[in-house]
Amino acid sequence: MTTITTPRTFSALESGWTLTALNPELAPEELRERLTAGIPATVPGEATIDLFHAGLIDDPFDGDNETRQQWIGDIVWRFTCEFDWHDDGNARHDLVAYGLDTVAYVALNGIIVGETRNFHRTYRWDARPYLRDGANRLSVTFLSPVASSDDAERRRGYYPHTEHHAFNQIRKPSYSFGWDWGIDVANAGIWRPIGIDSWSGARIASVRPLVDVRPDGTGVLDVHVEVERAGRGRVMTVADALDLNGVTGDGRGALPATVTVGGYDVNLEVAGVVEEGCDEAVLTVEIPEVRRWWPRGYGEQPLYDVHVAVGGIATEAEWHGHVGFRTLAVDTRADMTGRPFRITVNDVPVHARGYNWIPDSAFPSQVDDARYRRGIADLIESNSNMVRVWGGGIYEADEFYDMCDREGIMVWQDFMLACAAYPEDAETKAEVEAEAREQIARLSSHVSLTVWNGSNENYVAYSEWWGFKQALRADDLPANEHGYGEKGWGDYYYSELFPALLAELDPVHVYLPSSPMSFTQFTDANKDVDGTMHIWDVWNRQDYRTYLDYTPRFADEFGYQAPPAWSTLTSVVHDEKLDPFGAQMLVHQKASGGNVKLARGMRSHLTPGRFDDVSYNADGTRDWLIPTDRWDDIEDWHWACQLQQAQAIRFGVEHMRSLEPVNAGALIWQINDDWPVVSWAAVDYNGHRKPLWYASRDFFAPRFATIQPRVSAQAQADLSWEGKKVKPDTLALVVVNDTCSPWHGSWTVERRTLAGETLASQTFDDVTLEATSSVTLTLDASVVAFRDATDEILVATPASGDGFARVIHNPAEVIEQKLDRTPLTATVEATDGGYTLTVTAHAYARDVFCMVDKVDAAASIDGGLATLLPGETVVWHIASDGVDDPQAFAAPNVLRSANDLKRDWAAA
């Protein structure tokens, strides 16, 4: 189970649960009797998972089961549990629910205790009037989320949104209704613990340890402690009155409080008091010469232990956590290019490298600590230093943020409002504020938390998406600056509520109203040279070379699709003949025209034709597919798609990183999946790392070099016109040092034939890089003067690596290059924990990758997407419990390269 921090006074109700349907007539006829009688339920859990475990439905992810199981979202579900309870003498007994999904009524012993309207909140009710000594019965009745959202839309009116459900009408995660990568499994459940919290005197409602570092190096920790007092409600006992610190059982008096900070030869304790009649106190701890926390790649991640205690000996409430000390700022001052979004930690500008994160399962209760560890390892080992928690998902579990603290992964945290207009009626305002207050208080202690973001794409939606403003118009409202009445669409939350709450509760972090976001008034919200941007025309309607047209100051969302690993895909897609446009294949492709876009994207890179070529059907209608888009071998299609994803994102990120420091961040969409699907993920739902992930390990390296097109000084002087870009006419080696240590060395750049003959060479003997800096080295005309680009490459090699890898630049696309189709020989030998795969190239081998899951679905490999020059060898380790034929790991359909996608397309 996923770690959720609960007080020691809390007892979870985890056993004895039953699930029933209150409107079984909407379920398939053969299931109605069972659903009326009830089936065993797991808490935390969801209705769909219980149905699957009871054998009433098939795997929701398999085949086209998604369509057949839509009835689940129409059912009113009731979770019921019976439990024994006995009064232990505490003053308070609260029923606490840490996660209810979503619109629910909660009853104890047949009496309604409370109701919920928000997936993202914790609910607490004083249960004393309802509890009985001995047997008790708790029930949670969930209204249909589909019906609830539809009813709210009829009541409030239409507010524009993406996807097909009105997810913006209730406070349920947007993605659970389906997304362009997500399955539609809008169901209900108790997705986090529920139970009884028994306490006396006072309890700690929240702790917000806010940090700062003074110029002299002193760490300052302001611990904001908020308490709830037990209050009157029962006759005080003698034990209450004899509390050694004079704190009465109802907690009305002054409450002693202490904060203890330890670690790194520090052991400090500060005492204070929550005054009588008050519910909050601030205790300050100062640590001279504090050790600073750094993002991954810039330094270490020291964390100090913090213990907070409130109340007397008999009624003491405790909180345990950790803090890291660092300063944080963001630079958005206008410069010659526009306005940057550059994060600065400890006065050092940081280049953000990483991914967007979506919920790691369509069923959030199923995401345990092991899945979190796997996901964070995917970030760490890809050389990422930042992750964005996307606003259509969930506020993740405590362990997720703890891991980011420990590993130096900066967190960009969205509030959960995405791709829609959100009502600004009193009910929604109250829910969003309560949700935001809770989550700000919960997450503010995490040193990894770097950016709070108000919404995902909602400013762009308002200003640019067709029909958005028209749908908000209302004749009965006063005219605005556009001359017409308009319903509130959510800007209240982004421009008023969230800034006010952060100023009150967490003033030490960066805040953006929306992503993307420009910082200059009256400019395009998604302008590349101003603020943050999302780049989606590349996937939707442009060749990936279009990345070169942008100068992103901070690209926090961009991506390219590919299928999951072969074993993941074939475990859920069972079309009689596997085909990109098979019925079950398309169930697992949620993007509009997704597999057509994959085919178009390959043109001129892996297949013939141009991106915008069309064909015509027999009836004269246009067909975006052309004959050469169709692969004879589905395994070749699968490999070509995965390679294309890696090549497209590598092309984009290498361009962005070559622009440092103008570019200050690149966050790829996305690192993970929430089910087995064709998507933008770098790691599929089953944990298999796609070629993109291996490419990102290289292009996210803290020390990084790339060869990029540039404008020579002569061309700039001769062809420059005001407001018009000069086309690049040469190439340059761009060397980037995103570390806090300087580098000095030399680089040699050679133009070689694919067979290995050196045709030209240039050496840069004195290359010096200061900390967090870059240098651009223009290449000589003799080096870039390709005689035959289809048979030549550039190879840039550092004399002393020290973190830098060799650079290979291909001036021609795969389809054009004179590649040997079978450039590799390989051997496989058994070793501890698996096998050693040794691969040798007898010819130039571009982007070598081993699909180990085709042999063993549980296998993994420590390397991938390597390019080998003739005569070079790479040795990879395959982790596997054992297979019948180890040599299968070297089989042609397992050990792949870009070379083997070469075809005689003219003959085809």
From TrEMBL:
EC class of the enzyme, as a word: hydrolase
GO molecular function annotation: beta-mannosidase activity
Pfam families (UniProt xref): Glyco_hydro_2_N2
Native source species: Bifidobacterium callitrichos
Beta-mannosidase-like galactose-binding domain residues: 38-192
Top-level taxon of the source organism: Bacteria
Single GO BP term: carbohydrate metabolic process
InterPro entries from the UniProt entry: Beta-gal/glucu_dom_sf, Beta-mannosidase-like_N2, Beta-mannosidase_GH2, Galactose-bd-like_sf, GH, Ig-like_fold
Protein name in UniProt: beta-mannosidase
Lineage: Bacteria, Bacillati, Actinomycetota, Actinomycetes, Bifidobacteriales
Catalytic activity reported: Hydrolysis of terminal, non-reducing beta-D-mannose residues in beta-D-mannosides
Tagged with keyword S-adenosyl-L-methionine: no
Entry keyword set: Glycosidase, Hydrolase
EC numbers for this chain: 3.2.1.25
Keyword Zinc carried by entry: no
